[in-house]
Write a structure and sequence with these properties.
The chain is mostly helical. The chain contains 28 helices and no strands.
Length: 710
């Protein structure tokens, strides 16, 4: 990014055509936001669409030297049209952001010596210049993004496991740790989606390769590690009681999970190195834990023995996945049977629709993006009107602040408003001190470029710091162009405060998108995904089929929808207290839904690694009861209480099958299993399956009760 910006400016100065250099610089800068995580193909398309959009917007903006009464509606219409592009997904929202930046700067920068059409074409050329640099960087190191994303996923998975281990031991701050775990899971699922896009789309475009298959197999192991980690322990109260009666085992299991987490960090550090440390410590921990479990008197505490054996078995499965990753990182020769079919893999990608029908469907106040686009256009017109009527030095700074700060959600807009003001004030004070002592224009020019590059580097990680560096860069540039730099600094701060206040007021009072209006649908979508995953699990157990692609897609969708729900709840929790309607009930539903997925993951992991006995009629009845509960919750959440008959608001008395499920005890296991030679294996299976069914029923029934109160 630094090269894309600095080279045109340096060449423009050297060749005495700074206007051309700036146009190329702006084109490269505005095309850069869409160069985010994802496949190279999607990056190229994003940059090309950004370049085309900013060219068109700059061309139109170049001819907007008209009366204010005509300019305002045109500004509003352009803002709405550009912002509305965001309905087509995350990358489209970045393209939209580029277009809005170009629109704002068309009010600020009037090129000298260039016609508007020449200026806009040069901006498009700047976008192509940036695409050229991105393409060169990709072909010089095509593996860089994949490996960077995998390393980040290793680190996040390690952090997730570490938090999971802390949850096993902590009681006092368990709620806080669970919130941290949910945030980490959301972030991990996002990384998984990025890796799917990179790995699967690259196979579609460039074909199979040993390297791509190896990375894909590593990614699959990481997905399964996450699933197994989520799977246990589910019922912390049971685990607390169990560990209190079996002293020392809690520390053993924590040490095992901590060591698995540490090994993942080692993989991240030693990625692509054949010489990776061995697993001596982990092997010793597993052996010592197994020895301790074997000292438990089975006749006295057989239930505890079975639970601990199952828990240890899950950790052993994690160990097997670690060994598999280590083998894959050693650059082995893969057999053709280990190559994955691209046709099946394509099912894991979420298709993005780009037809006009989607634009028409979202043209309603039910659409968050529609309301955001309309809100943004009104605030942009208001901001420009205020800046013009009050005769501010640079009213476009108000517009720039609005574009950068305003987001569809209240929480993010509020945080950005605060960070923008603080960052701008800090940057202004630092810049004032520097320009007071430094008078050399060349030094100020170099500093402006350096601070701008730093601002882009930290933009995603720390917006406050980024705002400070942007302010530094702007002040340094104006210090070269104008003698009254301290007046410029004052206006910079004032414009930022006005833009931030307008943005904050608009998100609060102008067609607000409060979380409580959307959260019911988010919960319903997640419950539906979990229900479909449960149906796939039950089908595998009943029919004794192998795990199919449909099963894996259902699992992936369940995890993704739970992640989306977690993110939606976090947005709602950031909103004003008066708008957090039914927050406690919603929080409980979100936690129960997450626990439901954990229980499903337990069953899924068990079925993938064990041969099971024939499914009984009792099992089939239990599946039907749980599925009916989940269907009811989904239907209840999708309708308002006014649309549901009063008779349906009461839970029906539980049937005999449901009573048996509700009152299930470990002592009932013997009656459920068939007498075979491998009696102990049957005990393990029956206990795990029925304990999870009892748990799933308890969760689904509780969710059904809670859904009545929303």
């Amino acid at each position: 990014m630094g090269i894309a910006i600095t080279v045109p400016i340096v060449l423009g100065i050297a060749l005495e055509h700074l206007d051309i250099g700036l146009a190329l610089c702006f084109g490269a800068f505005w095309s850069s936001p869409s160069n985010t995580h994802g496949s190279f193909r999607n990056k190229k398309l994003g940059i090309l669409f950004s370049a085309a959009l900013v060219t068109i917007v700059s061309f139109i903006g170049g001819y907007l030297n008209i009366q204010l009464i005509l300019l305002l509606p045109i500004l509003g219409l352009l803002t709405f049209s550009i912002a509305y592009i965001s309905i087509y997904g995350f990358r489209a929202s970045l393209i939209s952001f580029s277009g809005l930046l170009a629109l704002v700067l068309s009010f600020a920068h009037t090129p000298t010596g260039l016609e508007p059409y020449e200026y806009s074409l040069l901006i498009g050329l700047g976008g192509l210049w940036y695409l050229l640099l991105v393409t060169i960087a990709y072909y010089l190191n095509p593996k860089a993004q994949t490996e960077e994303s995998l390393i980040e996923t290793f680190e996040l998975t390690a952090q997730f496991l570490k938090t999971r281990a802390q949850l096993v031991g902590e009681k006092s701050n368990r709620k806080e740790l669970q919130n941290t775990l949910h945030k980490l899971q959301t972030e991990l699922i996002e990384h998984h989606e990025t890796l799917r896009d990179i790995l699967i789309v690259s196979r579609k475009t460039s074909g199979n390769s040993k390297y791509q298959n190896k990375q894909l197999l590593i990614f699959i192991q990481l997905v399964e590690i996450l699933e197994t980690a989520i799977a246990n322990p589910v019922d912390y109260d049971t685990m607390d009681t169990l560990f209190e009666k079996n002293r020392g085992l809690k520390e053993n299991f924590q040490s095992i999970i901590f060591e698995i987490s540490e090994q993942l960090n080692v993989f991240a550090i030693s990625f692509n190195k054949k010489d990776i440390s061995c697993f001596n410590k982990l092997e010793k921990l597993l052996k010592s834990t197994k020895a301790k479990i074997n000292t438990i008197d089975e006749k006295v505490n057989y239930e505890h023995f079975v639970i601990l054996q199952n828990l240890l078995e899950y950790q052993e499965k994690q160990f097997e996945k670690l060994k598999r990753i280590k083998w894959l990182l050693s650059n082995p020769t893969l057999k053709s049977s280990e190559f994955l079919a691209t046709k099946k893999l394509k099912q894991f990608l979420v298709p993005q629709e780009y037809d006009l029908k989607m634009g028409v469907q979202n043209f309603t106040f039910k659409s968050t993006i529609f309301k955001h686009s309309l809100r943004l256009s009104v605030v942009m017109m208001t901001g420009f009107l205020v800046g013009t009527l009050l005769q501010f030095q640079n009213p476009y700074w108000i517009l720039l602040t609005i574009v950068v700060i305003m987001r569809p959600s209240y929480g993010l807009t509020k945080d950005r408003s605060k960070d923008r003001i603080i960052g701008t004030v800090i940057g202004a004070f630092i810049a004032a001190g520097i320009v007071f002592f430094v008078k050399d224009n060349y030094i100020l020019g170099v500093l402006s470029i350096i601070t701008l590059v730093i601002a882009f580097m930290v933009l995603q990680k720390n917006y406050k710091v980024s705002a400070a560096f942007v302010t530094l860069s702007v002040v340094f540039i104006y210090a070269i162009l104008r003698p009254d730099i301290f007046v410029v600094i004052q206006y910079r701060i004032l414009d930022t405060i006005i833009g931030a206040l307008l943005s904050f007021m608009a998100i609060k009072w102008l067609w607000p998108a409060w979380g409580f209006l959307e959260i019911r649908g988010d919960i319903a979508s997640s419950v539906l995904a979990n229900q479909k995953f449960f149906v796939e699990i039950a089908s595998v157990y009943i029919d004794k089929t192998s795990v199919s692609t449909n099963f894996k897609v259902a699992r992936k969708t369940a995890f993704l929808q739970t992640s989306n729900l977690n993110a939606a709840f976090q947005r709602m929790a950031q909103e004003p207290k008066s708008k957090q309607k039914n927050l406690d009930t919603i929080y409980e539903l979100v936690v129960l839904n997450h626990t439901l997925l954990s229980s499903l993951a337990t069953l899924s992991t068990y079925l993938q690694h064990h041969k099971t006995t024939p499914a009984s009629n009792n099992f089939k009845e239990a599946v039907t009861i749980i599925e009916d509960n989940l269907k009811y919750v989904k239907q209840r959440l999708e309708k308002s209480s006014q649309n549901i008959e009063a008779s349906t608001l009461k839970l029906a008395a539980p049937s005999a099958s449901e009573q048996r499920l509700m009152n299930f005890k470990f002592s009932d296991v013997k009656a459920l299993i068939q007498e075979t030679q491998d009696q102990e294996k049957n005990y393990h299976e029956a206990h795990l399956i029925w304990e999870q069914l009892r748990w799933l029923h308890s969760i689904s029934r509780k969710m059904r009760e809670l859904s009545h109160t929303l």
